[in-house]
Specification:
- The chain is of the alpha+beta class.
- It has three domains: 253 residues, Alpha-Beta Complex (Spore Coat Polysaccharide Biosynthesis Protein SpsA, Chain A), CATH 3.90.550; 62 residues, no CATH class; 97 residues, Jelly Rolls (Sandwich), CATH 2.60.120.
- The protein is 22% helix and 37% strand.
- It has ten helices and 30 strands.
- Helix 2 links the parallel strand 4 and strand 5.
- Helix 3 crosses helix 6.
- The longest helix has 16 residues.
C-alpha cells in the first residue's frame, strides 16, 4: 500500500502536554509490552508496518513537525513538507506530486490518505487494504471509509450512502451538525466522515492542475505560500460524482480532547503520581520531576509539563482552547531530530536549558550574535567543535562560547548538557547556521 498520513494541528486541546511545536500526535502515553511509552504517530506507524511490512508511508506535515517525526520514527520515513499551512487540499496535492515526481510512483498507483492520530486496532488496517483494492478497480474516482456512528456526534461531518450495502455510492455529504440534526442523519443511515479515502494518483494530480497553475512538485512547492486555503472535502470530495463509501464498524476514536484521550489510556497514572482511594475516574500524566498527589477527586484529569499544569473536570476539558490561546509564553519543551530540549529557568537576561543529544547525533553548527553560552556536560561523552577546534567532552567539562563563536556538539553516547544563555535579547531568531568545518 501507498499511504499518506496527514499530520497537522497545534494540539492546544491537550495543553500542557502539547504546544505550538509538539502536537498531540507526539505525546507518549500509550504503554507498550516492554513497559515504555509510544505516541499516536509511533503507534499508527508501527501498526501500518505490522499490517503491511512493504507499505510505503509518507507523512504530509509542516516544517515545525519534521524534527519530532524524525526523532520518533527515524530519518528513513518519507515526509512531504508543507512550507506553510494551506489546509488539506494543498497538502494532499503537494504530497501527491511528491509521490509521483520525487518517489517516482506511477500515476496509476493507488494511495490511501488518513489522519496520523486515530486510535484504532488491526481491523482498521485491514479496512485500509480493502479501501486501496476498491480504488484499484476504478469503479469510482474516490473511495471513502465511512465510520459506523456509535452516538449522534456534533464533531464530525456525515456521509449519507445511497443504500445499506457494505460498499455503496454516496448520495450526499453533510457538514458538522447540531445534536438533533445528527440524530436525523443517523436515522437516514449516515456514517461519520473520518477523513480516510483512496484514489489513483493521476486523479488528484489532474484536479490539482485544474485548480493550480504549476508544472511539477518543485514548482508547486515554490508557489505553495500563494495557494488558497481550502479543504480537500470542499475542493474535491463534495464535487465528485463518481464516489463510493465503504462501511467500517471497528474501533476508531478521535483522541482530540482530554476526555477522549483518557478513555484510551491503559492506566490511570503516568509519571510520578499518587492518588488516595476516594479518587474516582481520575487520570494523571506528569512529565515533571516532582510528585503529584490527588485526594478525593472525581471525573478529573491532572496533567503537568514544562508548559504548565492543568487540573480539570473531564467534561469541561473539552473547552480548554480559548484559555490556552490567551497564554503567551515561549515553547518550554521540544523534540528535535537530534534529541530534545527543556527550558528550566527564564530570567530577563538569561535562559537555562537541559539539552539531550541522542547517540550518534549532533546539533547544527551555529553561532549567535546577541548572546553568550555556557555548556556544562552532566552525562555521556562526545565531541565539541568550537570555531573549528575539536575537543573530546565528558561529564564535568564546562565550555564557554562568546557571541559570534561557531559551535556544536556531537554525541557518542546519550549526552546531557546544561546550557546557560546570557544576553539582552534571547530569541530563537538569533541563530546563524554553517556547514561543518
Amino acid at each position: 500500500m501507498n499511504i499518506v498520513l496527514l499530520s497537522g494541528g497545534s494540539g492546544k486541546r491537550l495543553w500542557p502536554l502539547s504546544n505550538d511545536i509538539r502536537s498531540k500526535q507526539f505525546i507518549k502515553i500509550f504503554k507498550k509490552e516492554d513497559g515504555t511509552y509510544e505516541s499516536m504517530v509511533q503507534r499508527v506507524y508501527r501498526q501500518i508496518k505490522k499490517a503491511d511490512r512493504n507499505s510505503s508511508v509518507t507523512i504530509a506535515t509542516a516544517k515545525t513537525q519534521v524534527s519530532a517525526i524524525y526523532n520518533q520514527l527515524g530519518e528513513d520515513v518519507g515526509i512531504s513538507i508543507e512550507p506553510c499551512r494551506r489546509d488539506t487540499f494543498p497538502a494532499i496535492a503537494l504530497a501527491t506530486a511528491y509521490l509521483t515526481d520525487v518517489l517516482h510512483i506511477s500515476e496509476d498507483e493507488v494511495v490511501v490518505v488518513c489522519p496520523v492520530d486515530p486510535y484504532v486496532d488491526e481491523k482498521y488496517f485491514d479496512a485500509l487494504k480493502e479501501l486501496s483494492a476498491q480504488a484499484e478497480k476504478g469503479e469510482a474516482n474516490l473511495v471513502l471509509m465511512g465510520m459506523e456512528p456509535t452516538y449522534p456526534s456534533e464533531k464530525y461531518g456525515y456521509i449519507i450512502p445511497k443504500n445499506n450495502e457494505h460498499i455503496s455510492e454516496v448520495a450526499t455529504f453533510k457538514e458538522k451538525p447540531d445534536l438533533e440534526t445528527a440524530k436525523s442523519y443517523i436515522s437516514q443511515g449516515a456514517l461519520w466522515n473520518g477523513g480516510v479515502f483512496a484514489y489513483k494518483l493521476a486523479y488528484v494530480l489532474n484536479k490539482a492542475h485544474e485548480m493550480i497553475d504549476f508544472t511539477d512538485y518543485e514548482d508547486l512547492y515554490k508557489k505553495y505560500a500563494t495557494l488558497e486555503k481550502i479543504s480537500f472535502d470542499y475542493a474535491v470530495v463534495e464535487k465528485e460524482k463518481k464516489i463510493q463509501v465503504i462501511r467500517f464498524s471497528g474501533q476508531w476514536k478521535d483522541l482530540g480532547t482530554w476526555n477522549t484521550l483518557t478513555e484510551a489510556m491503559e492506566e490511570s497514572m503516568i509519571g510520578d503520581a499518587r492518588m488516595n482511594d476516594t479518587c474516582n475516574n481520575v487520570h494523571v500524566i506528569n512529565e515533571l520531576n516532582i510528585p503529584i498527589l490527588c485526594m478525593g477527586l472525581k471525573d478529573a484529569v491532572v496533567s503537568a509539563s514544562p508548559e504548565g499544569i492543568l487540573v480539570s473536570d473531564k467534561e469541561q476539558s473539552s473547552y480548554i482552547k480559548p484559555y490556552v490561546d490567551a497564554i503567551d509564553q515561549r515553547v518550554m519543551f521540544a523534540e528535535k531530530s537530534w534529541g530534545s530540549f527543556r527550558i528550566l529557568d527564564v530570567e530577563d537576561e538569561s535562559l537555562t536549558i537541559i539539552i539531550t543529544l541522542n547517540p550518534g547525533h549532533k546539533m547544527n553548527y551555529h553561532s549567535h550574535e546577541r548572546r553568550d553560552e555556557v555548556w556544562t556536560i552532566i552525562s555521556g561523552t562526545g565531541m565539541s567543535l568550537i570555531d573549528g577546534v575539536k575537543k573530546r567532552v565528558q561529564v564535568g567539562d564546562v565550555l564557554t562560547m562568546p557571541a559570534g563563536c561557531r559551535h556544536t556538539l556531537l554525541a557518542d553516547t546519550e549526552l546531557k548538557v546544561i546550557e546557560v544563555q546570557i544576553g539582552h535579547e534571547i530569541t530563537v531568531h538569533d541563530k546563524i547556521k554553517y556547514d561543518m568545518e
